Sequence to fold (488 residues):
Amino acid sequence: MYVVMIAPECAPVAKVGGLADVVQGLSRELMIRGNAVEVILPKYDCMRYDRIWDLHKVFGDLWVPYHDMHFHCDVYFGFVEGLKCFFIESHSFTNFFNRGIYYGHNDDPERFAFFCRAALEFMLKANKHPDIIHCHDWQTGLVPVLLYDMYTHLGMTHPRVCYTLHNLKHQGVTGEYILRQVGLNPAHYMTQERLQDNFNHGAVNIMKGGIVYSNFVTTVSPHYSEEIKHTDLGYGLQHTLHEHGGKFGGVLNGLDYNAWNPETDPYIAHRYSINTLDDKYKNKEALRQRLWLRHDYKPLVAVVSRLDHQKGVELIRHAISYSLANGCQFVLLGSSPDPRINHEYWQLKHSLNDNPDCHLEISYHEELAHLIYAGADMILIPSAFEPCGLTQMIAMKYGTVPVVRNTGGLTDTVFDANYAHRPYHERNGYLFNDFNYQGMESALHRAIGMWYSHPQHFRELMINGMRYDYSWNHPGGHYINIYDYIKE
Fold:
């Protein structure tokens, strides 16, 4: 099968969050299974060019419509971790992808609408007719609209579209000018059955367009697929998802065990496995030594996270004082896109600087993240919502017990030590329901109590988590089935 991924991110070359890991991990899994896979990305100036091999121009005469003009583009090709990637570079006064940042500009809808049109124009001119075009998040939501209402009439009749929703909080709600920009007639699309936003009837919802026009829609975990249909986590798209429920489902993301594996990890002090689990504690000592923490008989609670409301930033702050008051050490690695939150955490860091049981690292370091996963006893993920989450999967692979809120992909992967409707050998962590201090304390209290009072049972939880296979093997098979289904 021939699959083209059209995405705004792909790890490690252009990464903001988990979307980048999904594009890379799923693409690699599809390749391993014998499929031809290509990825089309914007050519950002802030990409990790050191992670692209043999980057060179392959198409130098691409003219992409923009309102009543055409912008000239070049297309580059290079290998990213073995993946065949094409990068679209725009030469225009708008300077779409040379901003020093991936997202966060007022004209993001224009930037990515242009990218959608450019990706299809490139495929048409390069005579690419894949079996499947797999699009990701609102930034590529106009691809299926353009494909079926414009490019099929130009000869691209073969591809079918799979569209993956990574986070419904961001939907690309914008003005109807965006349709004119890419050559579509707003009068045709500004209806509730097509691209009109469900609540702001004067606005276009790009993500809604992707849902309506694609052949199949997925999101990144089964539980999240139910949440966005039935709760306010759908952010206004609940009705649209119900209308298209026959082509919608949740597929749990996978984890790249080539990057996250304590048996082979180059960034940790001592490699280990289930059979050599005692070596994990050498990493705990190495982590304490690196962060100047006291060497003592205490559990180490960690947070590796972006600091924002979705990730439970207020609960994380409360967890620091709760853990320290209940006989634990605490390590945090993360930063916030919000300067106010960063300032608050810097102040907290300064107030705790002399505490031998606490270290807050207000930044992100890949190498340190690996050592924290290997050295911590517990990882805390108190998310308000979590479409999938990779943190808990990584932690379990490293024998670090997750303490998580009962939401989204966390629900699909973490099974409570005390209350899960599963046999004991399948239980691997602690969950709490209520998004408040009391809810989180209830789960942390149980985890800390187990560590101190029943260390053998806690060790069994660690081993249970390490046994789970959250690789791309299973989701890769699910996506192949979806592709086969929509090809027929």
Summary: The chain has two domains: 2-254+473-487, 274-467. The chain is about 35% helix and 20% strand. The chain has a mean pLDDT of 96.
